[in-house]
């Protein structure tokens, strides 16, 4: 390191007796003022004194005067050095005890500004350290540690006041944050979080403690003394919040939305410490995410039982293929204008030895989570194609079979080759089948999914987008997928005659699909009235209990013949 004019200081520092800064200054001051003075005095006395006695007398007086002068100079210097010494001591105290320096700030020379600047710098530094340790840089909200601290403080205050109040703790997650980042970029993901926080802050107001407790996770609780969101209306409150912030947010002229799920725990029933309460609201949040269809979940011990059940099911499911407990049913579809039975959807079933037939809505998500959906999906596809091969060999009328592909299957880079091999093995043509994918399956790894779908499309395999309107519904990627069919989700069809919103959404989906040159299938048609309505709207195909429930291959043969 360059000494930048510190050579002399550095030289003096090597002298053991001059440890302190003041001793160095004083030595210099002493030598600088007294050596010339004493030399002068000696010279004067030796050259002018007539006798030794007078010389010694003069020398003695001069020496006493010099000593007094020295003492006074050193004392004054010592006092003048006080700002430096004080600053050094307070800095040291900040380093060891985090005590903010309390130095005078009104002097305006160099020593004064040393003290004033030290105070300002340390204060700012301390604020920064505090901020970095307690706040989240992206959202500006308190972080997890500070959230727990504030919750602790509130609980402590309640216990002091001996209040018997109960209040909820919410944990909320934007479950599509990862997908938003992979679709729109990391920066847009960050901006989305900020926009979400801002919206939430507006809804919650100042009487709520809000913090960023995870990547896409925000937690909050109402301050007990103020807006008393009591335990019994917490779900209602959460529902309102969930609805409001699920709607798309404008992030640099892009409309971005994510599914929002909320977990709730309640003080004091779910715990009396901040750790327990946050942990439980987060557990409830995972419950909401796992269950798939609930957006809001309150922590309850009942859930633990269900988790146990789920674990057991998972173990059984691993053996389901080898134990031949899986089978397929087919649900026919008709062409709306002609009434012809032209296609059918293959739907997976599990015949559990203990529980009987289990719905795919229960076991498909378990299989997806534990990773064996790939194997199961391949089994479904092979079985469906085998059935179709046998169907053709028997000389049955032509039928197109659609098979559902799970998101996880689209992560396998060899999936398209495997599909082609199965088609060839059963001597089928690509026109005989259709693959159904959902919007969510595209979101996780958009690029590779698009490559796979592009390949399948180039071989002539038709693709249908299932459950359209329920998920992400981003128009930007709709045009990127080589689709042939759009399936209007059954939740809209079910309410098409009774709910103006469902009708409006169905109309929009049909118009959108038509403008992109797609065929439209309506799912879940249960009544003649619904059929008439979707016919009027211009849907091409219909599927639902009105025509048939999912049935076996043999029943399907009979169904198409009548
Ligand atoms: P999905 O692909 O939307 O399948 C349509 C579901 O709606 C089927 O339920 C069908 O039985 C039901 N459905 C059809 N018409 C009506 C109707 O008129 N009214 C009512 N209320 N429901 C109707 P299912 O068979 O329980 O399948 C549920 C979901 O499980 C499927 O939804 C699909 O997402 C998944 N799934 C089924 N089989 C497979 C499969 O082989 N692989 C994958 N990955 N997922 C599958
Ligand atoms: Ca489907
Ligand atoms: Ca569907």
TrEMBL record:
Pfam families: EAL, GGDEF. Residues 310-562 form the EAL domain. The keyword Membrane applies. Gene3D superfamilies: 3.30.70.270, EAL domain (3.20.20.450). Residues 165-301 form the GGDEF domain. SMART domains: EAL, GGDEF. Keywords: Membrane, Transmembrane, Transmembrane helix. The chain crosses the membrane at residues 25-46, 58-81. One of its GO terms (molecular function) is cyclic-guanylate-specific phosphodiesterase activity. The keyword Membrane applies. PANTHER family: CYCLIC DI-GMP PHOSPHODIESTERASE PDEF, SIGNALING PROTEIN YKOW. This is GGDEF domain-containing protein. The lineage of its organism: Bacteria, Pseudomonadati, Spirochaetota, Spirochaetia, Leptospirales.
């Amino acid at each position: 390191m360059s000494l930048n004019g510190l050579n002399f200081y550095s030289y003096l520092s090597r002298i053991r007796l001059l440890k302190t800064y003041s001793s160095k200054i004083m030595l210099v001051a002493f030598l600088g003022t007294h050596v010339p003075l004493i030399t002068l005095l000696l010279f004067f006395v030796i050259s002018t004194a007539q006798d030794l006695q007078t010389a010694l007398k003069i020398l003695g007086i001069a020496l006493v005067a010099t000593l007094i002068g020295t003492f006074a100079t050193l004392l004054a210097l010592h006092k003048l050095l006080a700002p430096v010494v004080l600053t050094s001591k307070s800095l040291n105290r900040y380093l060891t005890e985090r005590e903010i320096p309390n130095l005078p700030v009104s002097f305006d020379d160099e020593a004064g500004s040393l003290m004033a600047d030290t105070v300002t710098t340390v204060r700012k530094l301390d604020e920064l350290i505090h901020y970095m340790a307690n706040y989240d840089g992206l959202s500006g909200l308190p972080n997890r540690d500070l959230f727990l601290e504030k919750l602790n403080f509130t609980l402590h205050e309640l216990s002091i006041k001996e209040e018997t109040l109960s209040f909820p703790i919410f944990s909320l997650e934007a479950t599509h944050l990862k997908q938003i980042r992979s679709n729109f970029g990391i920066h847009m993901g960050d901006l989305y979080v900020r926009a979400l926080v801002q919206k939430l802050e507006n809804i919650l107001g100042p009487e709520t403690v809000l913090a960023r407790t995870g990547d896409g996770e925000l937690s909050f609780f109402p301050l007990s003394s103020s807006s008393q969101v009591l335990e019994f209306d917490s779900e209602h409150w959460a529902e309102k919040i969930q609805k409001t912030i699920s709607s798309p947010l404008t992030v640099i002229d892009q409309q971005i939305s994510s599914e929002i799920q909320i977990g709730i725990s309640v003080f004091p029933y779910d715990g009396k410490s901040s750790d327990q309460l946050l942990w439980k609201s987060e557990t409830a949040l995972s419950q909401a995410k796992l269950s798939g269809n609930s957006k809001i979940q309150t922590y309850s011990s009942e859930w633990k039982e269900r988790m146990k059940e789920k674990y057991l099911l998972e173990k059984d499911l691993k053996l389901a293929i080898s134990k031949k407990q899986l089978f397929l049913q087919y649900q026919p579809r008709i062409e709306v204008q002609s009434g012809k039975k032209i296609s059918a959807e293959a739907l997976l079933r599990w015949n559990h030895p203990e529980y009987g037939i289990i719905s795919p809505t229960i076991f498909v998500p378990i299989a997806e989570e534990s990773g064996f959906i790939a194997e199961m999906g391949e089994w479904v596809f092979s079985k469906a194609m085998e059935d179709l091969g046998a169907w053709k060999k028997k000389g049955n009328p032509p039928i197109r079979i659609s098979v559902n592909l799970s998101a996880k299957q689209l992560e396998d880079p060899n999936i398209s080759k495997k599909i082609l091999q199965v088609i060839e093995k059963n001597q089928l043509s690509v026109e005989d089948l259709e693959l159904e994918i959902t919007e969510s399956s595209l979101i996780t790894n958009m690029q590779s999914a698009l490559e796979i779908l592009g390949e399948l499309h180039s071989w002539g395999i038709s693709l249908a987008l299932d459950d359209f309107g329920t998920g992400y519904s981003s128009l930007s990627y709709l045009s990127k997928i080589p689709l042939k069919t759009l399936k209007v989700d059954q939740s809209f069809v079910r309410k098409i005659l009774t709910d103006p919103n469902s009708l409006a959404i169905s109309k929009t989906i049909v118009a959108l699909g038509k403008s992109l040159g797609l065929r439209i299938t309506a799912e879940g048609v249960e009544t003649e009235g619904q059929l008439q309505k979707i016919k009027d709207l211009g849907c091409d195909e219909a599927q639902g209990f009105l025509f048939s429930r999912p049935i076996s291959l043999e029943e399907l043969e009979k169904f198409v013949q009548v």
